[in-house]
Amino acid sequence: MGELGEAEGVAAGGTQAAADAVETQMRAASTRAAGADAAAAQAGAADAQAGGRTRGLPKGKGYLRWMPAALRAIGFAMLLLAIVVLVPTAVPRVLGMDTFAIQTASMAPTMPVGSLVLVQPVDAADIPEGEAAAFHRGDSVVVHRVITNQVVEGYLVTKGDANQLEDQEPVPYPDVIGQVTYTIPYLGAFGEILSTVTGKIYFALFIVAALLVIILANQQTAQRRYLTRS
User: Fold this and answer.
1) Bridge partners of 119?
2) Phi first, then psi: what are they for 157, rounded to 5°?
3) Euclidean distance between CA atoms 212 and 228, whole angstroms
């Protein structure tokens, strides 16, 4: 009987230990499940936050991200081109200088065809020999180099740099416009265009178009920032 009671006690103890082990495993499983739920909740919150930051932005269209910057660069490039053309063609006239476009090759290579020359009105007697002068010849304006300045007789002897002979006709002082002070290659055509009313209108429209491109780029940038913050 004593051995039987001892066996029963061992069995009872084993049953209690098994129950404790099962309860421990259940608690551990519950803890793991709770941790998984918390992690899932955090991941969902992060996704929701990320979704809130990018809501409304197009997906799969990466080129839209750099489009505002590209438009802004194009607009500023157009404005820079307008400034490059406007400064040498318009500012000298404000300062009292005349501008002319070289249309023949008689002054090549120092003044190639298409160059813009800036002429400072001066007294013809003060133009040094070796400098270029602009003068009227009939209905045309000619730019040639002064070979001799006959102060007493009151005329210039001129010659084109590309010509072998001097000009046949001397230039009387009253026909002299002035002395060439600057030569800018390639801008002569723009100077002629801006000297007409139609050219001025087109140039103004070009500047307006450049400003509109910049404004459009800024609007796209502002819209993207708004969608990112919303």
Assistant:
1) 98, 180
2) -105, 120
3) 24
Q: Is the pTM of this model over 0.70?
A: no
pLDDT per residue as tens digits for the range 1-17: 433 333 333 334 444 55
pLDDT in tens, 80-124: 998 888 888 777 878 889 999 999 999 999 999 999 999 999 999
Q: Which amino acid is at 123?
A: D
The DSSP secondary-structure symbol of 173 reads G
Assess contact for 182 and 118: CB atoms under 8 A: yes
- Beta carbons of 143 and 134 less than 8 angstroms apart: yes
DSSP 127: P
Q: In angstroms, what CA-CA distances link 193 with 171, 187, 196, 201, 210? A: 29, 10, 6, 10, 19
What is the Cα gyration radius of the chain?
A: 44
